[in-house]
Design goal:
alpha+beta, Outer membrane efflux proteins (OEP), disordered N terminus
Length: 495
């Protein structure tokens, strides 16, 4: 028997009972072709590994295939990694968070534009009717009342180019010092969304495989009970056993069929959830697959790795928030600085009493200078803003302290859960092996007429219960491993 396990694909086009096809040719990539009988023996003899039963339980839903990697966009067969990669390209919530990074960069560009020269063009067109009135002394009677005089030009047009350059501006200084922090905050928010997406897709993928495995166990049980019912019927017709054995077999078969129907129907919502998580359109179809060799490798994790709080995205986000608050303190302290800028204006002035000849003659001039604004008293607003920013920093410090405590608590819980689930899975695996042996012996004894059918029902019930319990335990191990990686801040290490 080959030491390497086959690779399989689970087809979603017929989620009830896909037909199993055998590969007659060897394939590359470390995956060997497996016949149904060989796989059955591999399953029975290889239970020393916790995952082998899980792989064997997918027998009636899996197809052996050559391990040729296919791009996720082909939408044919997606492994867990390919589902995650596809989700990172198509999931709306994650793509929205990625757009927020670009928005942060554009916002910084808008804020920093204040450092560049500001150039504008404007002009005024004025027509006086009548001309403005001014008063002048009466030359004939200097001590008398001044005389009203209409002076000026009837038509004026003054286009001008205005240019200014900020030299000292607290708002622009704050934008320059904080620009990289806003981008970093947006990227960390996107990473947080990415971590949650990877975790959700992984759990949904494992939940789907678990349900398929349970369906296979129940189908095996239904097939087994169907044969037992037929045997009980023939024995009843022959007078070997009474009618109750046949009726008890029928009851057990009907119960198994009901459980199988429930498992089959539960596949559809799990499939829909996975499609939604990876961002696949509802009308599109795809298949899921899993490399069994990789699956065996991924169940283990280094439980001796030290927890580093700095690797958690929540801690990194709070550190960025604190840096931004430090910049806020500096910004409010700089409010006492003067706002200084330089300007230059160039004006073309056109004047003429005849509107049709207004542009015939221009009188250009220019001027330059500096503008300064110095805050002297703002009603203690400056001092209050500084104190408020410092209090916000203290609040963030306490949030960081609380987060460290929560991270340690999450890590301890996730680690303990993973270890207990792994131990529980190994125990349930042994129970499953013993239950299978017991069922085989009891079934043989019943056929030989040595024991009552009640013993067969008990053994059958114990076998199904142990198989389902083991599958649930296996999924719990895989799920708890995902939670442990998230608690340790290692979710993004592969993506």
């Amino acid at each position: 028997m080959s030491s390497e396990l086959p690779c399989y694909k689970v087809s979603w086009k017929n989620p009830r009972f896909p037909e199993i096809k055998e590969n007659s040719k060897a394939s590359g990539g470390g995956c060997q072709p497996g016949l149904r009988s060989t796989l059955k023996m591999t399953f029975l003899k290889g239970l020393a590994n916790p995952l082998v039963y899980f792989i064997g339980s997918l027998l009636f839903y899996l197809q052996a295939f050559p391990q040729d990697r296919q791009p996720a966009d082909s939408l044919q067969f997606l492994t867990l990694d390919q589902c995650i990669v596809y989700a990172l390209k198509h999931q709306p919530a994650y793509l929205e968070s990625a757009i927020n990074v670009s928005i942060a960069r554009k916002t910084n560009a808008i804020s920093l534009s204040g450092w560049l020269p500001q150039v504008s063009f404007g002009g005024n067109l004025t027509h006086y009717d009548p001309l403005p009135t001014s008063f002048t002394a009466n030359p004939l009677d200097p001590s008398g009342s001044p005389l009203p005089v209409h002076s000026g030009i009837t038509n004026t047009f003054t286009p001008q180019v205005n240019a200014s350059q900020a030299i000292i501006n607290p708002d622009v200084l704050y934008a320059a010092r904080s620009a990289h922090l806003f981008v970093e905050s947006a990227m960390q928010s996107s990473d947080s969304t990415k971590i949650n997406l990877i975790t959700s897709v992984s759990k949904s993928f494992f939940s789907l495989l678990l349900t398929l495995a349970q369906m296979n166990v129940l189908k095996d049980d239904t097939t087994r009970l169907g044969k037992t019912q037929r045997d009980a019927y023939h024995q009843y017709i022959s007078g070997v056993v009474d009618k109750t054995d046949y009726q008890e077999a029928t009851i057990s078969l009907n119960n198994s069929r009901a459980q199988l129907k429930q498992a089959v129907e539960s596949v559809r919502p799990l499939y829909a959830i996975l499609k939604q998580l990876i961002g696949l359109a509802p009308e599109k179809e795809f298949n899921v697959s899993y490399d069994t060799n990789q699956m065996m490798k991924k169940i283990s994790i280094d439980t001796n790795e030290q927890l580093l709080v700095e690797k958690r995205i929540e801690y990194q986000q709070l550190q960025t928030v604190k840096k931004l608050q430090e910049q806020n303190v500096q910004y409010y302290r700089s409010q006492y600085l003067p706002a200084l800028s330089a300007f230059y204006n160039y004006v073309y002035e056109y004047e003429n009493n005849n509107f049709s000849q207004l542009l015939n003659q221009s009188y250009p001039y220019s001027y330059m200078g500096a503008s300064v604004s110095i805050p002297l008293f703002t009603g203690l607003r400056w001092h209050a803003n500084v104190q408020k920013a410092k209090l916000e920093m203290q609040k963030t410090d306490w949030q960081i302290t609380d987060l460290k405590s929560r991270i340690y608590s999450e890590y301890s819980t996730a680690l303990a859960t993973y270890k207990s689930n792994l131990y529980n899975m190994n125990v349930l695996r042994e129970n499953m092996i013993m239950a299978r042996d017991v069922y085989g012996v009891v079934s043989l004894q019943y056929k030989q007429g040595l024991i009552a059918y009640l013993n067969v029902i008990t053994a059958e019930s114990n076998l199904i219960s142990s198989q389902i319990s083991f599958l649930n335990a296996l999924f719990q191990v895989l799920s708890s491993k995902v939670d442990l990686e998230k608690a340790m801040g290692n979710t993004l290490s592969k993506y």
